[in-house]
Automatic annotation (TrEMBL):
It comes from Streptomyces synnematoformans. Residues 8-99 form the Roadblock/LAMTOR2 domain. This is Roadblock/LC7 domain-containing protein. It holds the Pfam family Robl_LC7. Keywords: Membrane, Transmembrane, Transmembrane helix. The chain crosses the membrane at residues 75-97. It comes from the Bacteria. Coiled coil: none annotated. InterPro entries: Mycobact_SerProt_Inhib_Rv3364c, Roadblock/LAMTOR2_dom.
Length: 134
């Protein structure tokens, strides 16, 4: 899938404004990479595919909370060596970030929320029919 050039500078801004950021990926809910910064396309595709499963699991967990409407807002996973963040970013789109363990977690969450608020409409992925965007 082609990189969305209009998002390149926005993703770069996020990565450069939060020290320790490794990868920034925008993906559709079905796990297709829409844009990336700081990572090779193969790595971004792998992260996007994994995120499809994560967001699906998060929706199941959200359903436990009556006021959530089954919607996931943000998921944070801590692993040895770093953190992984997944945030809903528009209808059918998500923002994923991998960062080293020295990252300021509060700053990362704030910058991700700011980015989604600024460009949420640009991060929307249209529904697909037979593998094609409609």
């Amino acid at each position: 899938m082609a990189q969305r050039a209009d998002m390149d500078w926005m993703l770069r801004d996020l990565a450069e404004s939060v020290p320790e950021t490794r990868h920034v990926v925008v993906l559709s809910s079905d796990g297709l990479r829409m844009a990336q910064h700081g990572t090779e396309p193969d790595t971004a595709d792998r992260l996007a595919a994994a995120c499809a499963g994560l967001q699906s699991l998060a929706k199941s967990i959200a359903s436990v909370f009556p006021d959530s409407n089954g919607k996931m807002r943000m998921l944070v996973i801590e692993v040895s060596g770093g953190f992984f963040y997944l945030m809903a970013a528009g209808a059918g789109a998500y923002l994923a970030v991998a960062a080293d363990e020295g990252v300021d977690a509060g700053l990362m969450g704030q910058r991700m929320r700011d980015l989604v608020a600024r460009i949420g409409a640009h991060l929307t992925s249209p529904p697909r029919s037979d593998g094609q965007a409609i």
